[in-house]
Amino acid sequence: MSTALTPAELTAAFTDHFGAAPDGIWTAPGRVNLIGEHTDYNEGFVLPFAIDRTANVAIRLRGDSTARLLSSYGDQGVATVDLDTLSHEAMSGWTAYPLGVVWVLRQQGVAVGGFDLYLDSTVPTGAGLSSSAAIECAVATAFNDLLDAGLSAEELVLVGQRAENEVVGAPTGILDQSASLLATDGHAVFLDCRTQEAKLVPLDLAAASLLVLVVDTKVSHAHATGGYAARRASCELGAEVLGVAALRDVDDEDLAEAAGLLDPETFRRVRHIVTEDARVLQTVAVLDDGGPAAIGALLLASHASMRDDFEISCPELDLAVDTAMAHGALGARMTGGGFGGSAIALIPAAAEAAVRAAVTAAFASAGFTAPDIFAVSPADGARRLA
Ligand code: ADP
Ligand code: MG
Predict the structure, then answer these.
(1) Tens digits of residue pLDDT in 40-57
(2) Do 38 and 187 belong to one domain?
């Protein structure tokens, strides 16, 4: 992924394309989910942290109803739409993310008029690091600021989620937007997705001489059309048969009885959610107690559950996890929605070179596309940059 334009460079690029300087620049990060996968839409628990990869947007309000949008990524050129006649069809491709946010804000009575927008992001797309929420959260934060809309961070989370659900068509929960909006440097966000209550949990990797390595497998996932929706449907079926509002309400002790009520596949889907919720709670407790060095086994158990019960891993993700573990990782798991994207490995900082080399070599000998491997650290959430 290219490096970010500095605020001065972004201002210059914006001015070059749109003929006037932006009103400001806003930033929002991508995220790594440390643990708690597919639990968000089951009203359960997740533990993401924001990463030091961000979507930055420069915006200028125009005073008419025209929106012009440009991204430094790819060569799509400028997209131009009239906000007053904005249809779902007009919000296609990457512009569905920023325009989706604008559409939701307007639905909610925030009078967003015409604007020029330039996006520059260092969050790799489709890697399971939520490049989509980074865009949504940067744009939502920008208009909230520019128009003095007075929306809280929690309300902006829901704006981003509605854009993703109703405009992009991806049935995702609130995990990504919560991480991008609520995170702070050196912390993970422990989120109860039923109450939307968030608590910051210290995640000081450097103090423990650890780091989190991301292995982007380059296997692309497609949430809007892929298995994500099927998994979500299985969870809804499971909750319905078990007579609960959401799988959050099923405990470990209920699983034996659930096995007799559900078909084998739905049961395995349910078991992943129930055990994953428990693992998130345990991870928070262990972080509190022993710090990040003690959470490795929980990460690995999470991966096994996603691979075997929820069946959202793939050979590349499994190889990344297994190879990292064989070369000194304390724990490793796929992260994000699955079916490709990235794995994370919690490793001693001193093992970085060895793990990188081993994963690269393992992918080459398996005949897989070369992965992109990079370290991430827990970073601040969305805010104004300039
Ligand atoms: P993820 O959120 O895991 O990265 P998604 O499929 O949810 O994957 O979102 C990826 C999509 O977001 C891309 O296909 C593209 O439409 C959009 N996107 C992300 N980053 C950029 C960017 N820098 N420029 C333009 N579009 C982007
Ligand atoms: Mg996404």
Answers:
(1) 999 999 999 999 999 999
(2) yes
